[in-house]
């Protein structure tokens, strides 16, 4: 298990580095900041460590590579990320002997290849009020979920009045429904043909803001 978050030293580092360690064994780090995503799309993360590590993204557990062990790598599920800052936290501890930590991602920002997350993509944990307002001003809810008919109700929460782009994306990344509508706070998604049973992503964009949510469609 990782120890609690009582810090003996505090400071900033440019990336996920163990260089500031003050002893060779029995130490831990807590990294807390933001990962800036330049290009929205499908991403995956990979965490290699000796000993334990836990990676969280946007306050949700992404990878658990905890425990006392030699070098071990754990890969996350794929996910769709919006462009913009993503809250990222990482807990790491070393029990003894060697120590290793490598955090990688794969997606549009890395040209679809596995790459170490670069320092220029990371920032401190401070968020300005303007950034917080931008995050909170755009959202949507949908019902029913699971959806059992060929109709999905959308309630859009936004301060904008721009046209709204709507996609339904299957697990393989294919678009099964696409439409652009004039702004309405409440509207229906009605695919022109039956959608197969499974999990899908509802993607809604308006005026440069993008939000993705999962939905189960049953027939």
Q: Indicate the percent of residues in helices.
A: under 10%
Strand count:
17
The Cα radius of gyration reads 20 Å
Mean pLDDT: 86
Q: In terms of per-residue confidence, which ranges show pLDDT below 50 for 5 or more consecutive residues?
A: 126-136
Termini Cα gap = 43 Å
Categorize the overall geometry. elongated
The order of strands across the largest sheet is 4-3-7-1-10
| Residue fraction in strands | over 45%
Helix tally?
A: 1
Please give a structural write-up.
This protein is mainly beta. 4% of the residues lie in helices and 50% in strands. It contains 1 helix and 17 strands. It has one helix at residues 129-136; strands spanning 27-37, 41-50, 53-57, 60-65, 72-75, 79-81, 84-94, 100-106, 115-116, 122-123, 138-143, 152-158, 164-169, 175-181, 186-189, 198-206, 209-217. A 5-stranded antiparallel sheet has the order 4-3-7-1-10, with no helix packed on it. A hairpin with an 8-residue loop joins strand 8 and strand 9 (115-116). The protein is elongated, with a radius of gyration of 20 Å.
Summarize the helices and strands and which ones pair or pack.
Elements: E1 27-37, E2 41-50, E3 53-57, E4 60-65, E5 72-75, E6 79-81, E7 84-94, E8 100-106, E9 115-116, E10 122-123, H1 129-136, E11 138-143, E12 152-158, E13 164-169, E14 175-181, E15 186-189, E16 198-206, E17 209-217
Antiparallel strand pairs: 1-7, 1-10, 2-5, 2-6, 2-8, 3-4, 3-7, 8-9, 11-12, 12-15, 13-14, 13-16, 16-17
Summed up:
The chain is 4% helix and 50% strand. By secondary structure, the chain is mainly beta. The longest helix is centred in the middle third of the chain and has 8 residues, at 129-136.
